[in-house]
Design brief:
The protein is mainly alpha-helical and 84 residues long. The protein has two domains: 38 residues, no CATH class; 38 residues. The chain is 52% helix and 0% strand. The chain has four helices and no strands. The N and C termini lie far apart (43 Å). The N terminus is likely disordered.
């Protein structure tokens, strides 16, 4: 079975049609019709506050802060391995 490399993702087709995604099984789906139900479309709007990110994902600002700190810690650990 060959893979079609030109196959569109739900993100690109929804963005092109300016239509909210209905595929709630997509890993980029979020319940926000103003952002076409897509985390990628939402991210394209530029920097967001922790509160805005939390509102998009149904999480508190504090939980987003915890996730951010954990991600930074993991990235720092990975980076340190490469500079040794």
């Amino acid at each position: 079975m060959s893979h079609n490399r030109e196959q569109k993702t739900c993100f690109s087709s929804c963005e092109t049609l300016n239509k909210a995604c209905e595929n709630n099984k997509c890993r980029n789906w979020l319940n926000c019709s103003s952002k076409l139900n897509c985390a990628i479309v939402a991210a394209k709007d530029g920097p967001r506050t922790l509160q805005e990110i939390g509102d998009l994902h149904g999480l508190t600002r504090m939980r987003i802060c915890q996730i951010e700190k954990s991600a930074i810690k993991k990235l720092t650990q990975i980076f340190k391995k490469f500079i040794r």
